[in-house]
Amino acid sequence: MLPMEMNWLEDFLTLSVTRNFSRAAELRNVTQPAFSRRIRNLEYWVGAVLIDRSLFPVGLTQAGEAFRKTAQEALDTLRLGREEAQGLVPRAGEVVSIAASHTIAVSFFGDWHARLQAQIGPVRARVIADHVAGCVEALISGSCELMLSYSSPALPTLAEIGRYPSATLAWERLIPVSAPDQDGRPKHDLTRRTTIPYLCYSSNSYLGRVTAAVVEREGLASQLEFSYECSMSDVLKRGALAGAGIAWIPELAVRDELAAGLLVQSGDERHTAPLAITLFRQPEPTRNEVERIWAACEPDPHAGAA
User: pTM for this one?
Assistant: First the structure.
């Protein structure tokens, strides 16, 4: 019998949430054929079919439903044991682990944490900064208790998966920015319909897909000339500051540069996209410290009621 790998459990839990092999493979950063083989290997190891492939979207068999709890508990136990061994858990219940996308960790977390502490008192948190897919994986595998991520009306996110409760903390925009010319206007202006150097996200990143939706909607592909790509907003922002091209950046991440006139918005409102900063949590009741944070963020179901 093949030795069981922890990756297989994480693959299975991801698939149990997404119910889609290609989407789960993308989140796990593997090819779909490799992902499918790993799921098959897990089924061989368990000795039962876990995935009902006759359904669309795919579902869990009765054995799969029973095994999902076991898989989650096994990963939780391993994660806790690793953290205790490494001394990462000073005292039980003291620190809340929060996965956050890189840009949110830099541009939003500090201010939100300060407001949260002013509201409910001291909040001890460990921020795990990662790309969006990595944050989703951490939530699904139980490696974090809360997750801060972008969501957009243009793309489906975990908000559409009822298993994971979510609360919108703030709204902002994804905006195209450029260094200014000597007159303070965008050096690279989308409204001029000239060819513009394009600093873009990798196509499989979340902000890359949101940006691609704007580019397609507004017919900008022929106007944008690829210069370089990176999945991190900070790298693209540095390029825009240097005058190397145009980049779509979350507005909070460039607020200081916009205020100082180091960057200006290119194009107009139709070239932007709304972004929600959303807090996700595990579906089951958890530690008091996590519930205390969630209670301060969860929307009031009676708000606005007559």
Answer: 0.73
